[in-house]
Amino acid sequence: MELETNTSGLEIKTQRAWLANSVELLSSMRFAISLLTIIAISSITGTVLKQNEPLPNYVNQFGPFWFEVFQHLSLYSVYSAWWFLAIMGFLVLSTSLCLIRNTPKMLKDMRSWRENVREQSLRNFRHKAEWRGTVSREAMTQQMTQQIKNLGYQFKLVEKENASLIAAKKGAANKWGYIFAHAAIVVICIGGLLDSDLAIRFQQWFGGKVPFEGSGVLISQIPAQHKLSLANPTFRGNIAIPEGKSGDTAVIPQAKGVLLQELPFTIRLKKFHIDFYSTGMPKLFASDVTIVDHETGKTFDSTIKVNHPLIYKGIAIFQSSFDDGGSLLQVQAHSMTGANLGKFPISAKMGGENKLTAEQANGRDEYTIEWSAFRPFNVENLAREGQDLRAVHPNQNFAQKLTADLDKHSGSAAKNANNKDLKNVGPSMQYKLRDKTGQAREFHNYMQPVLLDGSWVFLAGARDSPNDQFRYLRIPADEDDKLDEWMRLRAALANPELRSRAAEVYAKRALPNAGAEAMQVQLANSAKKGLSIFAGEGDAPKLAGFTAIAGFLENIPAEEQTKAADVFMKILNGSMWDLWQLARQKEGLPALELTEKRAQFLQLATSALSDAFFYGAPVYLQMTGFEEIKASVFQVTRAPGQNVVYLGGLFLVIGVFSMFYIRERRLWIWIKHDAGETHALMALSSQRKTLDFEKEFEQLKKQLGVPEQPTESVTTSS
């Protein structure tokens, strides 16, 4: 008496077998479940893999081979891929056909009483009960109908031959759960298709619209084939507006290039507000804007916050993020090569470029400085616990011990993520230095010195690839918290004449006794050679700093390396002091008295000089001032399918609630007069046989007054 579960589809009568098979497959449950499974897997992929990123990011992440594979599968924009939209369309078609096939049956079954049952068929039910009574058939029938009515059952009384049948039902609305749940799938998919970029694809296929792949061009100069009209029914784009500026065109990213979406109004950003947590993460950001309607000229002010969008003319304006709006920086460029101590100013604008001539780069060709990021403050974790992970290890050989200083004085600006010591270390800027061949190296420099390991240092980060971590050169700040003394020492180290004079001064200072001229000459030659090796002018000119010293000492027998290294480093440190004083003397500055603080500065300066050979730039750019200009990034969307999806969500809630919390029960009571007594046969049926149903059956017998008699025959499911 129950509907059987059928996974087959709609069967049509036609002489074309392929058509009948296709319709049956499309409308079958197995096909719909397969589509839902594919959509679920695709959605997982779209969630794990960041969508609509610039293509070079995926190349760096996956490599050239897998980048091509994933691109052919459209995994970088899963939800707008043709195959995903096709699956959504087939799911709508399949579920709609399933509804067309099953809804009439379910509605008919909900209205039916299933009164065409026989006494013998009721005896075959698993849940049944029989009993006899002395009252008349009419009296028992009236008594039973009143009882089942009180229990909330709807019933129909059918007179059979010499018998009365009470057909009752409860929870027939359970069928609506299946109808609403399937309808929800159709409605949600239609809403999703309405909000997809299907409309934009149609305009590209049939309207001649193509993505714009250029850059550095004013929006007004971009041809019309790259712009979408105001009639575009659905879109989702971004618009970045600096403070005090306006915008009326959204940018819609595409796999290659962008499309431009015109808006029916202009957004003017009056003020951007931002608040931060102590960790440096944004706490709150909002934008005070003025909207100007193009059609009516209407103007009004509004504030757009995160999760509080402005909706105007069917277009929602969300506060998406924030960016730099072209901040102006004052930068001082310091030479990092040769004996030149020159420096020159640069006026920079974020997002812009500056040319670096070959003369400014000390003859190292021409470069382009691309200004990419500016942060007015940086909250860094400056805590360090125990020995640095990049410090010297006891089991390293001599060369490894000596060259490990490079890693010790470079690397992340925030060394230890486990111990928290969050401090604002001031403004920073990020830029790329690109040569004529197109090769670029990225830099990240802090404006102010930072206190690390008890010393104030300027952090100058560098990396070769966006996937790499910045490694920081630590330049010690002098007594005036400037770079002047370190830059002066760097230029002096590159001057062979000053190195030679420093070696002689050091030899006389180390051996002041009369009659030690021969030893002074020998010590001066050793000091001169040590300075030359450290400066990168030794027998291996490609090496410099501690790496070059390690390479030189490897030629000494292993058992004598440690002793030779101690002597070598003492001579180097002593001659570096005199080199520093000669550099100051050259500029007319007085000599300094050796103190513990200055000795520590010299030690840090020497280490930084060794690391500087790996910095990879002809100049060091130091920010000396800035004028911050903020920009707000808005996401503007027209989503006609949003309300459709909400409606589908409502249908889904109703459907799930009906299926899980409404149980259909069918009750039959066959009453007849037999051998001077009234005989009653009751049967109960439900789609889901649960423990609750077993209890309900027992409770129902008591409520209907079924007596505990020997004639009673009850069978329940095992």
From TrEMBL:
Compartment(s) of residence: Membrane
Pfam families assigned to the protein according to its UniProt record, in alphabetical order: ResB
Transmembrane spans: 31-49, 81-100, 176-194, 644-662
Keywords: Cytochrome c-type biogenesis, Membrane, Transmembrane, Transmembrane helix
Membrane topology of the entry: Multi-pass membrane protein
Protein origin, superkingdom: Bacteria
Domain ResB-like: residue ranges: 29-698
PANTHER family in alphabetical order: CYTOCHROME C BIOGENESIS PROTEIN CCS1, CHLOROPLASTIC
Protein name per UniProt: Cytochrome c biogenesis protein
Organism of provenance: Undibacterium macrobrachii
